[in-house]
């Protein structure tokens, strides 16, 4: 054990050296505020003549209201459908002609648009992105065609997947007041009822300079990018950002359980507890310390091949193992409430109740016996390695900067998080396992195989193409 621990400590020293080397390959990110209130984040990385350009808007599904769920994601689609100077689809064709690639995504917290092009074409993609941010225009007919694509996306990714439908219902049960309870893609009834004006109003309301950030990572000079961004994005007129009213989830005071019956071959179990979220990796308050310990706890349970859940439930000969898969997750960052989740797919012939008991036992074992220093250092090493190797990707650098900005944090947050996680102790991990998983705050969902449940009705005619966006 001493030899293994010594080896792990040497590994941490090597990783620290790798972190320093990776950090020196990329300069410190710079933050600017444009004259209209838009944020600019620039991360130089001169290892290749390429650049990633991202536009982040701090608006996602949590900013929707009942009756228009999915509108943030629909707007993401419509942002590719034209401006007064660009025909529908022309944005993507021009990026491709520059030798680039592009896409976009919507989450509960944000919407982001990104392109990667040769560094000499940065100005061109900036002008394209600024144009559609300010001047997104399309016809009602264009909307009617694209909303069918979004409906088809929902059918393929949610309605035709029993597990996806279960998790959607689980989210709506585990949270009762906070808008995180709604699916990002939206409820089908809301998509059916959505109008072109719903989408235009959402764009007008939230796509304002003070609610957006431009992120540039790659072979660039920060001050030159600042001047370029000021001339292109800075001329967009500033507008007031709508007031965001607090929508807090009330405390949970009793266990919640549901069965979701579907025509599927395997059962599935999902468990969730509300948890404190990580507001700042450098903070020293009790909530932040608990959040850091929960990140480590999640990694101990499911952070590497052969972690605790895998060993206890999945490994073993057929007929003796409890689950085909088991996992743990903790959404530390978010504009809304955080949860710690455990999931498992029972092996053939194993009851869901037995798997739930086994998952609880693994939490209980850490709460009772704690973890060894060797195991603790192993997961820290694994996490540190992932963070270091992530820096090899210019896109990942831009993604990280944008993610921190969405949550009100600056470019140095990743380094602060790494440093803070190195300081998490075995006793802190044991403490959160003891205190933060009471039964009265638990929500449980079980996917129950039921052949009598009909699948999605058969359809006639061709499916709309989903595309990339």
Can you walk me through this structure?
- By secondary structure, this protein is of the alpha+beta class.
- It has two domains: 26-232, Metalloenzyme, LuxS/M16 peptidase-like (Cytochrome Bc1 Complex, Chain A, domain 1), CATH 3.30.830.10; 256-449, Metalloenzyme, LuxS/M16 peptidase-like (Cytochrome Bc1 Complex, Chain A, domain 1), CATH 3.30.830.10.
- The protein is 44% helix and 17% strand.
- The protein contains 16 helices and eleven strands.
- A six-stranded mixed β-sheet has the order 1-2-6-3-5-4, sandwiched between helices.
- A hairpin with a 7-residue loop joins β9 (323-330) and β10.
- Residues 194-382 form the Peptidase M16 C-terminal domain.
Summary?
The protein is an alpha+beta fold. The protein has helices spanning 2-25, 71-78, 90-97, 122-135, 140-159, 162-174, 188-193, 196-206, 222-232, 286-302, 308-314, 352-369, 373-390, 394-406, 413-422, 426-435; strands spanning 30-33, 39-44, 50-57, 101-106, 111-118, 212-218, 256-262, 268-275, 323-330, 338-346, 443-449. It is built from 16 helices and eleven strands.
Secondary structure: elements and pairs:
Blueprint: H1 2-25, E1 30-33, E2 39-44, E3 50-57, H2 71-78, H3 90-97, E4 101-106, E5 111-118, H4 122-135, H5 140-159, H6 162-174, H7 188-193, H8 196-206, E6 212-218, H9 222-232, E7 256-262, E8 268-275, H10 286-302, H11 308-314, E9 323-330, E10 338-346, H12 352-369, H13 373-390, H14 394-406, H15 413-422, H16 426-435, E11 443-449
Parallel strand pairs: 2-6, 7-11
Antiparallel strand pairs: 1-2, 3-5, 3-6, 4-5, 8-10, 8-11, 9-10
């Amino acid at each position: 054990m001493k030899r293994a621990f010594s080896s792990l400590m040497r590994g941490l020293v090597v990783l620290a050296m790798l972190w320093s080397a990776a950090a020196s390959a990329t300069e410190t990110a710079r933050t600017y505020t444009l004259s209209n209130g838009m944020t600019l984040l620039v991360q130089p990385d001169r290892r290749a003549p390429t650049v990633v350009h991202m536009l982040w808007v701090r608006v996602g599904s949590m900013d929707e209201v009942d009756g228009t769920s999915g509108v943030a994601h629909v707007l993401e689609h419509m942002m590719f459908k034209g401006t007064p100077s660009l025909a529908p689809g022309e944005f993507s064709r021009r990026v491709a002609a520059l030798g680039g690639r592009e896409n976009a995504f919507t989450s509960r917290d944000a919407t982001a648009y990104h392109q990667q092009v040769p560094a000499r074409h940065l100005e061109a993609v900036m002008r394209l992105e600024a144009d559609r941010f300010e001047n997104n225009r399309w016809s009602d007919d264009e909307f009617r065609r694209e909303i069918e694509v979004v409906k088809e996306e929902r059918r393929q990714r949610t309605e035709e997947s029993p597990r996806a439908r279960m998790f959607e219902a689980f989210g709506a049960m585990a949270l009762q007041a906070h808008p995180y309870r709604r699916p990002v893609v939206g409820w089908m009834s809301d998509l059916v009822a959505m109008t072109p004006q719903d989408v235009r109003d959402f764009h007008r309301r939230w796509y304002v300079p003070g609610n957006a950030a431009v992120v540039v990572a790659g072979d660039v000079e920060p001050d030159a990018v600042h001047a370029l961004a000021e001339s292109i994005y800075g001329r967009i007129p500033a507008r007031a950002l709508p007031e965001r009213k607090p929508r807090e989830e009330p405390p949970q005071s009793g266990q919640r359980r549901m069965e979701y019956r579907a025509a599927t071959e395997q059962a599935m179990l999902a468990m969730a507890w509300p948890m404190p979220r990580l507001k700042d990796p450098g903070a020293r308050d009790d909530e932040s310390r608990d959040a850091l310990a929960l990140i480590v706890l999640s990694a101990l349970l499911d952070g590497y091949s052969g972690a605790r859940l895998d060993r206890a439930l999945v490994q073993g000969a057929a007929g003796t193992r409890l689950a085909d898969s088991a996992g743990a997750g903790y959404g530390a960052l978010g504009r809304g409430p955080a949860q710690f989740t455990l999931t498992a797919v029972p092996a053939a012939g194993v009851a869901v109740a037995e798997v739930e008991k086994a998952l609880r036992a693994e939490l209980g074992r850490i709460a009772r016996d704690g973890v060894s220093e060797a195991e603790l250092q192993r997961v820290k090493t694994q996490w540190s390695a992932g963070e270091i190797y992530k820096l090899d990707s210019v896109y990942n650098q831009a993604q990280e900067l944008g993610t921190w900005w969405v949550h009100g944090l600056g470019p140095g947050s990743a380094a602060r998080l790494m440093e803070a996680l190195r300081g998490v102790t075995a006793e802190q991990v044991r403490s959160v396992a003891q205190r933060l998983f009471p039964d009265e705050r638990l929500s449980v969902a079980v996917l129950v195989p039921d052949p009598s449940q009909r699948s999605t009705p058969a359809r006639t005619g061709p499916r709309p193409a989903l595309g990339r966006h």
